[in-house]
Amino acid sequence: MEKLRETVARIVPPDVRAMAWAQRRLDDLTKPPGSLGVLEKMARQIAGITGQPRPALPEKTCILMAGDHGVTEEGVSSYPSEVTAQMVLNFLAGGAAMSVLARHAGARLVVVDVGVKSDLPQHPLLLGRKVAHGTANMALGPAMTREQAVAALEVGIGVAEECIRDGAGILGTGEMGIGNTTPSTAIVALYRGCNVAEVCGRGTGLNSEQLKRKISVIEKALAVNRPDPGDPLDVLAKVGGLEIAALAGVMLAAAAGRVPVVVDGFISGAAALIAAAIAPVCREYMIASHLSEEPGHKMMLELLGLEPCLHMNMRLGEGTGAALAMLLIDGAIKIINEMATFSEAGVARSE
Amino acid sequence: MEKLRETVARIVPPDVRAMAWAQRRLDDLTKPPGSLGVLEKMARQIAGITGQPRPALPEKTCILMAGDHGVTEEGVSSYPSEVTAQMVLNFLAGGAAMSVLARHAGARLVVVDVGVKSDLPQHPLLLGRKVAHGTANMALGPAMTREQAVAALEVGIGVAEECIRDGAGILGTGEMGIGNTTPSTAIVALYRGCNVAEVCGRGTGLNSEQLKRKISVIEKALAVNRPDPGDPLDVLAKVGGLEIAALAGVMLAAAAGRVPVVVDGFISGAAALIAAAIAPVCREYMIASHLSEEPGHKMMLELLGLEPCLHMNMRLGEGTGAALAMLLIDGAIKIINEMATFSEAGVARSE
Asked: pLDDT means per 10 residues in chain B (351 residues)?
């Protein structure tokens, strides 16, 4: 708990002076003011986060948190829990979608076992930080104890701090956890204050019958646990997940370390809701990536005040949207650094 | 006219067998079927276009067509016509937004003078293919003769053919032409069959008074010229532009050459409407990039049956959206080539 408290205490708002300087430069570049839209917004935000009006191109690291979910016993996913561990090995071997897209984005991929059900073999690319062998079935009681939730949050903080110490100038979030759209849906329904049916989606591909079942499982989990929306650790422990907690920790540590964090899709969005409930200012360190096919994702982003730039009907998670968004963010940073100003280029300004 | 006719005659639909093979592989990769959304769609489309179920990573070329517009006399832009030529020099010097983003995307940038008002100095990176010193004022009569429109289309065809011959495996479109949202708005209003006021936007930054003026200028141009929506060359000549014609030629040549073409924003969209009216099949070779701030852009994309993947509130043109989208397309091609299959990775399939 001490590490969490200390991290939250270090979070301060971005540097408004650096943002104003960045804005002045953006307005002086050879284009109509504001015409690069979100690219300009990203450049300004990163200037504020780093305190550098012309931020350098950052080293990129994507952190992929893996964990299992006891609620899969209820038949809420098309895949068995064993796939979480199998996919971890696939990440390590470089064959998963996120392996490909992290390489494509030039990002280091750090894979963390924070709560996979089975024991995983040692591997040089895998960080073994298991807090538990998966969560308990949240349809029957709390998914985690409060202590486990804090421990998983602090795993995320610790890993993010290590990545930043190793040179990362921007972090991306990703996850693997069969069943994890179920707790994420519970979290968004709770913060939105709406019916589960309004936000629940098909995850990796449920049919209509299975979707109904998933809705009733989430309703049961909320009724059994009665998480307190005013207490994010209570929400996290009762209807969250180990990888969701760890990702929330990554986001808090990014804000504390003054590093932008690219939020992937639906599961990362649930983690972002928790992180923002713990420390609202950390939202200013977040950059949304894509809009997921999961219906609850749009609501999450609205709650967070974030706008996704990629509309690609993706619903895989792993960090795939964050990796793609990093390519756009690099473009934004190059724009503010490499474009000529009106006076440098001898171009007339608007009349 | 012969070159145009011959190019259109060579356009055939994409290879459905290669698309089916690509689909089979996509479904065999370690992810829930369809979960990578538009990335999968892009990979399948490029398989169909190239006839290769696992297409190679293509060399990328962005073609930037520059031309001026007589209609700027009517006060439809915040910038003077001279800026077109000044910006061409900025592209050649590497300081424009598109210079930066083409480099970022690893794309060659080919700049073509197809109709800049002033005479430009010779430069190794500039293709001088001037058809006219800008168009005539379309508010008073046709912007071009039919012969000029065809000549500009054939400039585009020729340049695209050269790029493909030089190794380009994917083309992007871009343009520079002060005043060119005005003809583009006329084209979309005509094809949509709606009032100009419904589609007209602020271009590079008009105020409400200037926007009203722009609307009435476009209404006048349509009333004076009465372009025939059933005759795309008539539309192009009367209310189009030299760079719009040339970009339509690029798109036709891409389809004829079996090369995907990434369509930038609003002006490129107007060119795409013309190209699709000349040869409807060429739409299957197009990949939309971003959704522009110009209100008419969404309508254009609907008419073309294309969906933009980038929502970044951009409104600069030049090809900036196309360059960013090329980074996503490269990701799609890497996905189909580099991801492991379920059997290779030893991952269980869905139940």
From this structure: 97 98 98 97 98 98 98 95 97 98 98 98 96 98 98 98 98 98 98 96 91 97 98 98 98 98 98 98 98 96 98 98 98 98 91 64
What does the radius of gyration of chain A's CA atoms come to, in whole angstroms? 20
Asked if A281 and A135 sit in the same domain, the reply is yes
Find the CB nearest B350 among A38, A204, A350.
A204
Judge whether A159 lies within some domain: yes
Residues A181 and A241 in one domain: yes
Q: Which residues form the domain of A259?
A: 59-328
Alpha-carbon distance of B15 to B281, in angstroms, equals 12
Residues 6+ apart with CB under 8 A from A2: none
Q: What is the CATH number of the domain that holds B167?
A: 3.40.50.10210
Find the largest Cα–Cα distance for chain A: 69
Say how far apart CA A273 and CA B331 lie, in whole Å.
29
- Residue A67 shares a structural domain with residue A180: yes
Given this model, what pLDDT does residue B351 score?
Answer: 64
Domain membership of residue A193 (yes or no) is: yes
Predicted ipTM of the assembly: 0.97
- Indicate if the alpha-carbon torsion angle B65, B265, B214, A27 is positive or negative: negative
Residue A350 lies in a domain: no
* Whole-angstrom distance, CA of residue B52 vs CA of residue B55: 5
Q: Hey, how many other C-beta atoms are within 10 angstroms of the C-beta on A161?
A: 18
Four-CA torsion A313, A314, A319, A325, nearest 10 degrees: -30
Taking the CA of residue B65 and the nearest CA in chain A, the distance in Å comes to 17
Test mutation, B39, B178, B336, chain A, max A CBs within 10 A: B39
Residues B144 and B38 in one domain: no
Q: What is the pLDDT of residues B175-201, one digit of tens each?
A: 999 999 999 999 999 999 999 999 999
| Cα–Cα distances in angstroms (integers) from residue B294 to residues A321, B99, B166, B201, B314, in the given order | 26, 22, 34, 5, 9
| Shared domain check, B266 and B233 | yes
CA B129 to chain centre: 19
Counted across chains A and B, CB pairs separated by less than 8 A come out at 206
The tokens describing A209, both together, are 């019958």
- Give the whole-angstrom CA distance, residue B98 versus residue B95: 8
Burial class (CB in 10 A: 0-12, 13-18, 19+), B149: buried
Same domain, residue pair B23 and B162: no
Question: Does residue B310 sit at the A interface (CB-CB below 8 Å)?
Answer: yes
Q: Which residues on adjacent β-strands are paired with residue A262?
A: A172, A287
Chain B interface, mutation test: which of A28, A35, A38, A309, most B Cβ atoms within 10 Å?
A35
Strand (E) positions, B51-197? 59-67, 107-115, 126-128, 168-176
CB contact under 8 Å between B204 and A78, yes or no, is no
Is B2 assigned a catalytic role?
no
The per-residue pLDDT for range A252-309, each reduced to its tens digit, is 999 999 999 999 999 999 999 999 999 999 999 999 999 999 999 999 999 999 999 9
Catalytic residue among A302, A318, A338, A344: A318
Q: Please give the helix or strand (H or E) that residue B266 lies within, else none.
A: helix B266-278
